[in-house]
């Protein structure tokens, strides 16, 4: 009987030790998605139940519109069905897209995110909005002191920014379809370009070159508008996803052709790339 009690106590003790040794749940490991032809970051985000912003941050992507076939996209730990984006209610306010707007600019202006704007307006591609389009404004809005009571449908066009008076700067004349390198008030070089089409316009305003990349793959769009362009040369980003870069897929310079970037010939883009530095002001206007 005593032996039986000892054995029973031993089994109970082992069971308690086993229970105590069960490890606590550790942080989930990230998973990866391999980009296939036709994929966009928006499509991948929808498939894995994440947001474009979350995937862009996790993968250090400066431009959510530029991913390439074979790229490994890390899905942050914890992303899944339980973290799928929830529907975002509209506020009842409507904004009419003006010349030079992008979804990034609108999201910043109204204190929301690109993802929220896309969900409440059922947008497929964050890079495709057009002048005159009416967008529902989701959730968060600007502080009452700065938010207009309503945005009129006939929002006036933005005034052209004043050019610099000294140093190097780049002028993009959308009406003339030209780009000009200036040093102070002296034009150094001026050539024809192709800026954005009417439904994918090049933004107007005062910006600056914030990163230079000698060559990269560019992809984006959706359906018939999808594109995949390896080896785009002499790329200089000046705001958001918009860049000045070389173009090998067309030679129609002097007329709008792009998704919003500024297309130059390869030789001209190399000249501008070598002439400008990060921080060089870029003025785009009509």
Account of the 3D structure:
The chain is of the alpha+beta class and 286 residues long. The protein starts with a helix and ends with a strand. The longest helix has 19 residues. The protein is globular. The strands form four sheets. The chain has a five-stranded mixed β-sheet, covered by helices on one side. Strands 9-10-11-12 form a four-stranded mixed β-sheet, covered by helices on one side. It has six helices and 13 strands. About 12% of the residues have low confidence. The protein has three domains: 53 residues, Membrane-bound Lytic Murein Transglycosylase D, Chain A (Roll); 49 residues, LysM domain (Membrane-bound Lytic Murein Transglycosylase D, Chain A), CATH 3.10.350; 118 residues, L,D-transpeptidase catalytic domain-like.
* Tally of separate helices: 6
Instruction: Specify the biggest β-sheet.
Output: 5 strands, mixed
Got a strand count? 13
Number of domain modules: 3
Write the CATH architecture name of the largest domain: Beta Barrel
The CATH superfamily of the largest domain is known as L,D-transpeptidase catalytic domain-like
Walk me through the topology:
Layout: H1 2-20, E1 31-34, H2 41-48, H3 52-58, E2 72-75, E3 90-96, H4 103-109, H5 114-121, E4 134-138, E5 168-173, E6 178-183, E7 186-192, E8 205-208, E9 211-220, E10 227-239, E11 242-246, E12 262-264, H6 266-275, E13 281-285
Parallel strand pairs: 5-13, 11-12
Antiparallel strand pairs: 1-2, 3-4, 5-6, 6-7, 8-13, 9-10, 10-11
